Amino acid sequence: MERLDALIARTEGGLAVLWGRRRVGKTRLLLEWSSRHQGLYTVADESASTVQRTYFARAVANRFPEFDEVTYPDWHALLRRLSGRCQAAEWRGPLIIDEFPYLVAANPPFASIFQNWLDRDARSAGLVVAVAGSSQRMMQGIVLEANAPLFGRAAELIELRPLLPGYVADAFEAVGPRRAVELYAVWGGIPRYWELASPLGRDLDQAVDRLVLDPLGPLHREPDRLLLEESPPAVSLRPLLDVIGAGANRVSEIARRLGQPATSLSRPLARLVQLGLVKRELPYGESEKSSKLAVYRIADPFFRFWFCTVASRRSLFVGSPAETRVAVWQERRTSLESETWEELCRTGVSYLHRGENALGRLGPWEPARRYWKGSGPEWDVVAASLDGKRLLLGEAKWLSEPADSSMLSGIAAGLTRKGNIPVSLAGNREVVWAVFVPELRRGSRLPAGVHTVDAASVLSCLR
Predict the structure, then answer these.
(1) Where are the domains of the chain?
(2) pTM (2 decimals)?
(3) What is the phi-psi region of residue 432: left when phi exceeds 0, alpha when psi lies from -120 to 50, beta otherwise?
(4) What is 2-159's CATH topology?
(5) Pairing with 135, which of 107, 120, 408, 434 sits 20 to 30 Å away (CA)?
(6) Tens digit of pLDDT for each residue in 170-190?
C-alpha cells in the first residue's frame, strides 16, 4: 500500500503492475487503495473486445456520467476520450484495470494501443494507472520480457505473494505459536482461506472437513479450479502435482510414474515453479545449474495438504461420514505439520536477527537450505553467516509436547554426532549448532554449545 500510495504523490503519474496467484488478495488490495483515493476500479472479463469496451465505458460512467452513452469503435478512441475527461476534471486517478490479460487475450493489439496511450495521453494528464492479473504467465509476458509492450513502463512492479506465517495469529484470534504453525500447514499464506476458516473457531478438524474434505466444501476442488483459471489453462499439469504430492521428488521418478521421458518434463515443471506451486530444491552448496541432485516438492502448503490428503481419496470421501474423512486427515496431519515446521525454520533463519534470539545475533544469515548427499546424514537447516565466519547446522523437530531438558539433549546429541558438513563446505568457518522445536518446557536447560529456537521466535520474525 505504501508503494502504491507513493505513485499518487508523483506529479507525472505512473503505472503500477501487480500480479500473483489467485486468492492471494490482489483485488482486495486494489479496492482498498481505490477507496482511499477516490479511484476508479474496473475489471475485465473474457467477453469479446466490443463487449469489453461497453463494460469498461459503463464502469467509467460511475465517475464521469454519460461516458457510456457513446459507442466507441475501438480502444484508441475510448482511451483518448477517457484521458481527456480526466484532464478536464483534473482527476489523476488511480485508474485500476483488474484482470488486464483478458483485454489482451480478446484483442492482442490492445497491449500496444495501451502502451501508446500511457506514453502520451495518460502521461500528459498525469494519470496514475494500475493493471493487475492472476494469469502470471500472461502478466509477465506483457510486462517483464524485453520485447513486451509494457516493458520498462511501470514505476512499480509488485508480485503479490502469500502472507508470511507470522500474520496467522492476526487472522485467527488468540492462537499460540504451535497452533499458528498447525494452521499454516493447512491454509498456507492465502488470505481467502484464512477468511473462510477463521469463523469456524479453534476446531481445526472441523474446519478442514467442512471446507476441504467434504465433497460439498468450497475448497474441495480448489486446485482443479485454480489450474483451470490460469491463462492458458494449466490443467495438463495436474498429473505432475499428483505424483509429486504422492512422494515422487526426482525427475526420473516423476517421469517413471507418469510413463513419460524425463526430457519432456522440463517445461511443465518450470511452469509449476513459475506459478509458485512447486519448488526446485538443491542441497546446500550445490550450484543452481546443477540438475543431478535437484528434487521437486509442492511449495504451497494448501496444495501440499490437498494432494497428500484429498487427491487420491475423493471417491472415498463421497460416500463417507465426517468421522472417516477426519480420520484420513489425521493420518497425514503430523507429517504435514512436520514438513511445514522444517520449511518455516529454514525460512526464518534469514530473519532471526530481527528478534532477541541469540542465534540471530550471530547472523545475519544467508537463506538456509537442507543438505543431503547419497546415503549420508542429512541436515534440516544449513546456512552461512553473511560475513562468512560461521556455518549454521540445525535440526528441526516437530514434537507433540514442549521440549524438556532431556529431549533437547537427545536432539542435540543426534545433531552433533553427524559431524560437520563436508570440509569443502565448512572450510575454516566456526560451526554453530542449533535445535528448532515448537515449544520449550518452562525451566528446561539448554544443551551446552547448542542454540535452541522455538516457534514463537520463528514466527515473530516472519512478519
Answers:
(1) 2-159, 167-332, 343-461
(2) 0.91
(3) beta
(4) Rossmann fold (3.40.50)
(5) 120
(6) 999 878 999 999 999 999 999
